[in-house]
Design goal:
5-stranded mixed sheet; alpha/beta; 8 helices
Length: about 180
């Protein structure tokens, strides 16, 4: 379905978001068959004409880079591809609610909208998290970006609970909250 996001009603928009998220889940799930399985994937679409610019995976382990989250990688690849600093006119999809670093990068990039699947609470069951909701990062800035989710939360969460991923995560050692 190649539809513009501009002239669609909320029901159509929901269907488009779900279709793009399902496609992102499928893309991310392919990593589960590789030696570097990750549950985190991101894609960027042109908000107006609905074309997909690119998809990216988390590559923290692969690149020995703690900042190589899927969203940051997608944004870096997109601005380089477009040779532009601004991603105004683009929408980012991510299988998990963006962490503060990723949401801040989305704001600096000027993305129109960020749509996420699983939540920080979901991811927290398996790996370390920073407990600041993506919407709070937006609220505390003078930049604007619509944050919407969860979309296909259950489907996105299956990426975390896949046996391959559970083995890769290992047991989750929780910090004791004082
Ligand atoms: Zn992140």
């Amino acid at each position: 379905m190649l539809l513009s996001n501009m002239a669609v009603n909320p029901k159509q928009r929901k269907a488009i978001d779900e279709e793009r998220m399902a496609s992102l889940v499928a893309f991310t799930a392919r990593s589960l068959k590789t030696k570097a399985p990750v549950p985190f994937g991101a894609s960027i679409y042109n908000t107006t004409d609905g074309t997909m610019l690119l998809q990216a995976l988390n590559a923290v382990s692969k690149e020995f880079d703690p900042s190589s989250h899927a969203e940051v990688r997608a944004i870096r690849l997109a601005t380089k591809k477009l040779k532009k600093l601004s991603l105004k006119g683009y929408t980012l999809y991510t299988t998990c609610e963006p962490c503060p670093m990723c949401m801040s990068t989305a704001l600096w990039a000027g993305l129109d909208r960020v749509v996420y699947g699983a939540t920080i609470e979901d991811a927290d069951k398996h790996c370390q998290q920073i407990y600041i909701p993506a919407t709070e990062i937006v609220t505390r800035s003078d930049m604007r970006c619509k944050v919407e989710g969860p979309v296909l939360r259950a489907e996105c969460y299956t990426l975390f609970t896949d046996p391959t991923m559970l083995r890769a995560f290992g047991p989750r050692a929780k910090r004791k909250l004082k």
